[in-house]
Amino acid sequence: MVKIIGPVLRKIPKIRDVKKQAEKLGERTFEQTRIANVFFSTIADFFLFLGRTTREAFSRDFEFKEFFRQCYLIGYKTLPLISITGLIIGLVLTIQSRPALADFGAVSMLPGMVALSIIREMGPVITALICAGKIGSGMGAELGSMRVTEQIDAMEVSSTNPMRFLVVTRVLAATLMIPILVLYADALGILGSWAGANIKGDVTFVLFFSQAFSVIDFLDLFPAVIKTFFFGAAIGFVGCYKGYNAGRGTESVGKAANSAVVLSSLLVIIIDLVAVQITDML
Amino acid sequence: MAESVPLVKEVIKTPKEVVEIENLSIGFENLKVLDDLSLKLYNGENLVVLGKSGSGKSVLIKCIVRLLMPDSGTVKVLGDDVNEMGRKELAEVRKKIGFLFQSGALYDSMTIKENLEFPLKRVRKDLTKKEMNEKVEEALENVGLSDTLDKMPSQLSGGMRKRVSLARTVVVDPLIMLYDEPTTGLDPITSDEISELINKVQKKYKTSSLIITHDIECARATADRIIMLQNGAVYLEGKVVDFEKSADVLIKSFFR
To answer: A151: distance to nearest CA of chain B, Å?
Structure first.
C-alpha cells in the first residue's frame, strides 16, 4: 500500500509551496495591473491634454505676441539647420541615383525623379525628423524646466492661463512653421540636386528645373504639404505635453526632452504611413 | 524717482479673516501630509507658519491658491471657498493674492522689466503704458533694484532674484501675500534684508501675510503670530514670546 501511495504523495506539492506560488501569482497580477493602470491613465491624460489645448486654442484672449515670438524661434532659428539638410539631401540623392540611371541610359530622368522623391517623401519626413529633434526637445526641456522651477505655477497664480500662453502658442506656431520649413527644404533640396548633377555633368539651371517640375503635378505637392501640418502639430503637441507634465526633479527635464524627441519622431513616421495610405487611395 | 500716480484701487471690504482654513486634509499616495488642519489669517497681520522640512508647510500654502486640491476640508479666501470656485472666479481671487515662490520662479526668457509687466498686464488692464512703467520702476525701487530693469534673471544673484520676485508679487497691489520659504538658501545678511522687505511690504501695501519658513530669525523679525506644524497638524499657536518661553522639547530645538 505504502509502495503505491508513497510516490503519488511525493508528487502532490506541499501546502507551503502552493501558498508561495499563490503569493507570487498575486504579486505578478498586482504588478501587471499597476503597469496597465499607468499605461491607460497616460493615454487618457494625453487625450485630455489634447482636448484642453484644442479648447484653449479657440478661446478669446489669444496670446499673439507669444505666438509670433514662437514662430520666429521655430521658423527663423531653424533655417540654417534646414538649409544644410535640404541641400545635402538633394545632393546625395542625385549622386547616389545617377550611376543606376546611367546604366539604363535614363540620366535625363534624374531631375524629375529626385524632385518627386524630395517633394513627396524625403523633404517632409527628414525636415520633420530634424524639427522633432530640435523643436520637440527644445519645447520639452523649456517647459520641463519651467515646471521644475515653479514658473508654470507662478503663471497660474498670477491669473495667467499657462495652457493658453505656453502650450497653444507653441503648438500653433509649430503647426504653421513646419510646412513652411518643409517647402523651403524642398526648394533647397532640388537646388542641391542641380549642384549634384553638375558634378559629373553639365546641365543648365533652367533646363534642370523645367525637367524637374514637368513631372510634378498638384497631387504630388498637395498631400505632401497637408501632412506637414500634422507633423508640425504632433511635434509641437508632444514637446509641450512632455514638458508641461514633467516631474518635479531636475532629472525629469532631461527625461521630458528625450521622450519628446522619441515620441514625436515616432508620430511623424506613423502620420507619414497613414498619409501615404490615404494618398494612395486618391 | 517720483511716486507713481495714485491708481483707482478696487474697494474690497475685507473680512476680519482673510484666509480661513477648516479641517484641511491632503495626502499623496500613502502619505498623509496635512491632517485635519485649521487656521485663520486675520486682516493686516503677519502669520508665520513654522515647521520642519516635510511637515506640509508648502502644501498648505499651495492649497490656498488651489495649486493643490485637498482631499477634504475648506479653504476660504476673502470669504469664498476656493475649492468650490469655477476658473473665472478663481482667477479673480488669485488677482488679490501675491505668491512668492521658494525658488523665486522668475521667467527665464524675459527681462526683469518684462517679468514685472507680465502679471501687471493681466491683472491691471486699466493701466496705461506710462502708468505701467511707473509701477514697475516703483516696485523695483522698493526692493532696491531699480538698475536691473533690462537684465535677465540669470544675471542676478540668488538674493537679487528673490527681491525681484517680491517686486513682481507686490506690483499688482495684492491684499494677501503668501511667502514660501522666503529666506531659504540665502546668507544671513540677505535673509535679514528679505525679512525687512516683508515688513516694509506689509506696511506700505497694507497686506495680510502668511509666511512659511523654518528660519527662526525670519520668524522673529516678521511674525505677529506663529503657528507651528508637526505631522500635518497645528502643534502650537502663539506669539514669538510664547514660543521663546515654551519648555517643549520640539519648540526649544527650534528657538534655542
So the answer is: 5
Could you report the average pLDDT of every consecutive run of 10 residues in chain A (282 residues)? 68 74 89 90 91 88 91 93 94 91 87 92 95 94 93 90 94 96 95 90 88 87 93 96 89 92 95 91 76
Residue B233: phi and psi, rounded to 5, are -135, 165
The answer, yes or no, to whether residue B7 has pLDDT greater than 80, is no
What is residue A282's DSSP assignment? -
Q: Report helix, strand or coil for B210.
A: strand
The confidence score (pLDDT) of residue A13 equals 65
Tell me if A150 and B103 make a contact (CB, 8 A cut-off). yes
Q: What pLDDT is stored for residue A259 in this prediction? A: 93
Q: b/e string for A148-169 if b means 16 or more Cβ within 10 A?
A: bbbbbbbbbbbbbbbbbbbbbb
| A149: nearest CB among B105, B119, B122 | B105
Interface test with B, best of A148, A158, A248 (most B CBs within 10 A): A158
User: pLDDT by residue (tens digit) across A155-214?
Assistant: 999 888 899 999 999 999 999 999 999 999 999 999 999 999 998 778 888 999 998 888
- Give the best residue of A59, A159, A170 to mutate against chain B (max B CB count within 10 A): A159
Distance (Å) from the alpha carbon of B243 to chain A's nearest alpha carbon: 32
User: How many angstroms separate the CA atoms of A248 and A257, rounded?
Assistant: 14
**CA-atom Rg of chain B in angstroms:** 18
pLDDT for the residue B201: 84
Q: What is the pLDDT of residue A201?
A: 79
SS3 state of residue B35:
strand
Q: Give B162 to chain A, closest Cα distance, Å.
A: 13
Q: What is the mean pLDDT of residues B46-64?
A: 89
- Helix/strand/coil for B98: strand
Strands B225-230 and B233-238: antiparallel
Per-residue pLDDT tens over the stretch A46-55? 999 999 999 9
Closest-CA residue of A relative to B119 is A158
| Whether B114 contacts B107, CB under 8 Å | yes
Nearest CA in chain B to A158: B119
Give me the pLDDT at residue A2, please. 63
- Say whether residue A277 is in contact with chain B using an 8 A CB cutoff: no
DSSP symbol at B153: G
CA distance B19 to A165: 29
Q: First and final CA of chain A: distance in angstroms?
A: 80
**Cα–Cα distance between B210 and B197 in angstroms, integer?**
14
A151 interfaces chain B, CB cutoff of 8 Å: yes
- Residues forming beta bridges with residue B74, ordered by sequence position: B22
Instruction: Judge whether A160 is closer than 8 Å to chain B, CB to CB.
Output: yes
The pLDDT value recorded for residue A44 is 92
Average pLDDT of the residues of chain B: 86
Strand runs labelled E in chain B: 17-28, 31-42, 46-51, 72-77, 80-81, 97-100, 176-180, 208-213, 225-230, 233-238
